[in-house]
Amino acid sequence: PTAATHCRCRPRVGKETTLFRRILVPLDGSPQGEHALPLAAVIAEKSGATLHLVLVHEPDAYTEYGAASFEDFDEESKAKEVAYLNAVLERLTSATSITAEVHHLEGVIEETLAAEVTSREIDLVVMNAHGWGFTSRALLGSVSDYLMRNLEVPLLLMHAHDQSGEEGPSRPTSIKRVLVPLDGSELAASILGPAEQLGEVWDAEYRLVRVVPAPSSLFGMLGSDKGASDAALLEQPRQNAEQYLEKASAALRERNHTVSTQVLVHRQAAAGILQEAAESGCDAIAISTSGRGGLSRLLVGSVADKVVRGAERPVLVYRPGPG
C-alpha cells in the first residue's frame, strides 16, 4: 500500500527509558474510533513512544459497492480522510507533548493495518473494538477481530459508543490495576510480559487469577460420589491452582511489583474473569489468545474472544508467534 505521512514532533517528557517505542492507533473517521486515542496518548507520553495515527482508505475497487464511475467520489473521500487525520493531529499535539505521526494508507483495511504494524515495527496497537467510518459501515469491529487473530504484538482493545449513539464506558486515561487470567499453559503465561510492560507505565498492581471449574461442571459426568461435598471436590484443584499462581507471580514480585493472586470457582471461565475484573476494581484485563478463527472458534469457543466482547474495560490481547 501507498502512504502519505505527516509528522509533528514535540519534545518528549516523562521517563527516559522507553517502555513502548512505537504505538499504532487505527482510526476510521468516527467519534467511536477515537475512543482509544486519549489512553494511547497517555501511554505514548509516559513511555516516550511515537504515536502513529493510521487511517486506511479502502478504494471502491476493494469493496462490493464500488465501480469505476465512482472515481470522483473516491478522490473526494480521500481528501476528507486526509483533512480528518490532520485535524486529529493538530488537536492531539496542541494538547499534549507527544511525538505523533499520521499515515493515510490505501488497501484492504485489515491486511493493510497488519502490514503497517510489521513494516514500522510497532510495539503496541491501541484501538476501539467497534466504530463506524465515513461510509457508516461497522469497520473496526471486524478489523479488531482480524488483528486479534493475526498480529504478534499486543493489542489493547476498548469499547465505546454503539451506532445508536448511546453512551458507553468512560474513557480511561490510567491503568492502576491489571487482571491477568492464567490457566496453567505456556500460551496463557505468554501474556505476562506484555501485561507487565503496560502496567509499568503507571507502576500498576497485578492480579493473577486462575479459574477452577465449579464441581457440577468438573465432576458431574465423571461418576463422582454424590455424597462428596463441593469443598472436598475442589480441594485439590484449588491447591494446584494456588501453587501455580504463586509460582507465576514470583518473577513479578522479584521486580518489585505489587501482585495478588486469586483462585476463581466458576462454571464459565470468561464469565468468572469478567465478574472478578468488576468486583476487584481492575482497570484492564490482559489475556493471551491462540488466534484461532473460523469454524474451530465457533465449535470450541475462545475465552479471550468472550472476554473482549463482554468487557467494560480495556483488554490487552496477545497472540505469541510460533516458537
Order of helices and strands: EEHEHEHEHEEHHEHHEHEHHE
Shape: elongated
What is the strand content?
15-25%
Low-confidence stretches: 1-18, 131-140, 161-168, 218-222, 294-301
The largest sheet, given as strand count, sense and whether it forms a barrel, is: 11 strands, mixed
Read across the widest sheet, the strand sequence of neighbours is 1-4-3-2-5-6-11-10-7-8-9
How many individual β-strands? 11
Our measurement of the CA-to-CA distance between the termini, rounded to an integer number of angstroms, reads 29 Å
Concise description?
This protein has 323 residues and is an alpha/beta fold. The protein has helices spanning 37-47, 71-95, 109-119, 139-150, 186-189, 192-199, 215-219, 230-254, 269-279, 294-300, 303-310; strands spanning 3-8, 22-27, 50-57, 99-106, 124-128, 155-158, 177-182, 205-213, 259-266, 284-288, 315-318.
